[in-house]
Amino acid sequence: MNLPRLLSLAGTLCLSATLAHAAGFSFIEVPADKDGPALQGAVWSPCDGPAATITLDTLVIAGARNCPVAGAALPLVVVSHGTGGSFLGHHDTDAALADAGLVVAAISHPGDNFRDLSRQGYLSAFATRPEDMKRLVDYMLTAWPGRAKLDPERIGFFGFSRGGYTGLAAIGAVPNYKLREDLCPPESKVPLCGEIRRNEMPPLPRRDPRIKAAVIVDPLSAFDAKGLKDVTVPIQLWGSAYGGDGVLPHHVEELRRDLPIPPEWHLAANAGHFAFLAPCSPALAKSAPEICTDAPGFDRVAFHADFDAQVVVFFKRHLAPKPLP
Question: pTM (2 decimals)?
Answer without folding.
Answer: 0.92
